[in-house]
Design a protein that fits this description.
The chain is an alpha+beta fold. Helices cover 33% and strands 33% of the residues. β1 and β2 form a beta hairpin. The protein starts with a helix and ends in a 9-residue tail after the last helix.
Length: 83
């Protein structure tokens, strides 16, 4: 397959995924994981330097959870980096 065709295919796939995430839809990619939009509610906090109360607006964040086979492959039992 020509590189330009692969590039267009990946670009189109990215556009579809992005559009679905903007609509707050959950995207599940087999053997990779799940992407979902999480809405963080508006809340107040205290500025550590001034002690002033600050309002943090509502925002959306992207969450990713890898599928179990991928996690197991990345972190096999019995193998550590401490050796």
């Amino acid at each position: 397959m020509p590189v330009t065709r692969v590039y267009r295919l990946i670009k189109r796939y990215y556009e579809v995924l992005t559009n679905d995430l903007v609509k707050e839809q959950r995207i599940e990619i087999p053997a990779l994981g799940v992407f979902a939009v999480h809405v963080r509610p508006k809340h107040t906090t205290v500025h550590p330097k001034t002690g002033e109360t600050v309002v943090i607006p509502k925002k959306k964040a992207l969450r990713y959870r890898s599928c179990r086979p991928l996690r197991r492959r990345l972190n096999p039992k019995g193998k550590t980096d401490d050796t």
